[in-house]
């Protein structure tokens, strides 16, 4: 069982996947910072600082001035504003990643497709008929 595990880990694609996950985790921090520190402030200029994260509905009794006070008091809260902000942030992050991947793909040299080896098509119909004719003459 241990040798099977070592064989599994030693495969190239497993190691490639592990490296990809590690780099992806580091890249997530970079893209998250890019979005929250650079892109979101620019977007807030155009939306007059609109922030949905404070929108909520109390599920039960009580009046609360903010989402934080409602959560601190232990009230059941339907925080739909956070969900809206999460969707907006996801769309922004997805767009930034798309633009970055597109830029990286432009910088990579184009891979040439290997030329297909010409297969011998074999004898044509005329060649076969000529062979049959010659065989009948003999």
Number of strands: 2
The total count of helices amounts to 5
Strand order of the largest sheet: 1-2
- Note poorly predicted spans: none
Task: For the record, give the distance between the C-alpha atoms at the N and C termini, rounded to a whole number.
Answer: 69 Å
Q: Which of globular, elongated, flat, extended, rod-shaped describes the shape?
A: elongated
Determine the fraction of residues in helical runs and give it as a percent range: 55-70%
Sheet of most strands: 2 strands, antiparallel
User: What is the percentage of strand-forming residues?
Assistant: under 5%
Provide the gyration radius in Å: 32 Å
Oligomer: single chain
Mean pLDDT: 81
How is this structure best described in words?
The protein has 138 residues and is an all-alpha fold. The protein folds into two domains: 1-48, no CATH class; 51-109, no CATH class. Helices cover 66% and strands 3% of the residues. Strands 1-2 form a two-stranded antiparallel sheet. Helix 2 packs across helix 4 (80-107). The radius of gyration is 32 Å and the shape is elongated.
